[in-house]
Specification:
Strand content: 15-25%
Oligomer: single chain
Number of strands: 12
Shape: globular
Number of helices: 12
Helix content: 25-40%
Length: about 350
């Protein structure tokens, strides 16, 4: 028996030496530190995609060009002195995005994925301060996106806004009342005619909650993907047509520098307006890294949990800057057989974006 374990240990060390780029992902670092964070299930047995990374045997020249920058996050909870640190390299995010797509989205589309829970608006109101706003405006800088869509620029009465904020008293996942805030917030804009949800301000309540304590310390409906779907299912007459998930003004401490690095690597600057936007497929290194980032994981969970309704989708992502400092991320969950909203960006022999 000792010889068996010794041999397995040697094999593990050999794998790490051959593919050190996925070491951080092998350590299963939790990115739930700030922003629209890791979307997890409260099930005692979470999906296997959340455990170990998918090994990538070869690192492409594109991935190598991003180097080994460490997107280290230091986040101190507003309610405690707890500080978490989550080091991430670009390659670790590629591993994570590959894992979510291959073992999450594709498995779900094959009928082997975890089913999303059927939450209701009442679940939201029991766990959050629920504020509904009719006739909000499209976030600044998103008009060109609306113009490119089939439905065009929406009228004011076609736009819905819902803010979910932390409340001092709520019902937790076990049905008991908790009299302390959970510190989360999800502010979302819904445009059903354009088949899009835009996240404008999101902080997950899981940031400082140990996983075993989630049912006791958080509402039953606490994941961004679940909360977003409940409202979408209410405001849209054809919820299964949901196609776009967008993040306006990305502030997450991992997602933001990743976007900046991609823009610099491909455009030479991280100040890229909509006209010079970059669009990547899920098969590209950049697409995988963005899919594995905290702001991309929400789109992943929408496809994983709602695939029975949404059907076969092939995601691609577009990134650009809105104004001087705001980063934007648009996930196009392209239905099979339909044309994507934006074509993939082409690059020259040196990796620079063309056009």
């Amino acid at each position: 028996m000792a010889t068996h374990f010794l041999e397995r240990g040697r094999i593990l060390i050999l794998l790490i030496l051959l593919n050190p780029s996925c070491l951080w992902a092998l350590l299963a670092i939790n990115p739930s530190t700030h922003g629209a964070l890791h979307d997890r299930s409260i099930s005692p047995q979470p999906p296997t995609i959340d455990r170990e990374p998918l090994a990538i045997p070869e690192i492409s020249k594109i991935a190598q060009s991003y180097g080994t920058q460490d997107f280290t996050v230091s986040f101190t909870s507003p309610s405690s002195a707890l500080t978490k640190r989550a080091p991430y390299t670009f390659q670790a995010l590629i591993c994570k995005g590959e894992k979510y797509y291959q073992e999450g989205v594709l498995q779900a589309q094959a009928g082997n994925g975890p089913a999303g829970r059927a939450f209701t608006e009442n679940d939201l109101r029991n766990g959050w301060e629920y504020k509904e706003a009719r006739f909000p405006t499209v976030p600044d800088g998103w008009i060109p996106v609306m113009e490119a869509m089939r439905a065009g620029i929406p009228d004011r009465d076609e736009i819905y806004g819902v803010n979910l904020d932390s409340t001092d008293s709520f019902i937790n996942g076990r049905g008991a009342r908790v009299n302390s805030p959970h510190e989360g917030r999800y502010h979302l804009t819904y445009i059903p005619n354009n088949d899009i949800i835009i996240a404008t301000d999101t902080i997950s309540p899981v940031a400082n909650v140990p996983k075993p304590s989630i049912p006791d310390r958080l509402p039953a409906c606490f994941q961004l993907s679940d909360c977003a779907w409940v409202v979408w299912n209410k405001v849209s007459q054809t919820p299964n047509d949901l196609r776009f998930y967008a993040v306006d003004d990305v502030e997450n401490d991992i997602s933001r520098p990743v976007i900046d690095q991609i823009l610099r690597n491909r455009r030479g600057t991280n100040w890229v307006d909509f006209e010079d936007k970059l669009t990547f497929s899920i098969d590209s290194e950049e697409g995988k890294a963005l899919f594995g980032s905290p702001n991309g994981i929400a789109a992943a969970w929408i496809m994983i949990h709602r695939v029975g309704s949404l059907g076969r989708r092939v995601p691609r992502v577009t990134i650009w800057n809105r104004g001087a400092v705001s980063r934007c991320m648009l996930w196009d969950m392209v239905p099979q057989g339909q044309q994507p909203l934006f074509p993939l960006t082409e690059f020259d022999g040196e990796g620079n974006a063309i056009g």
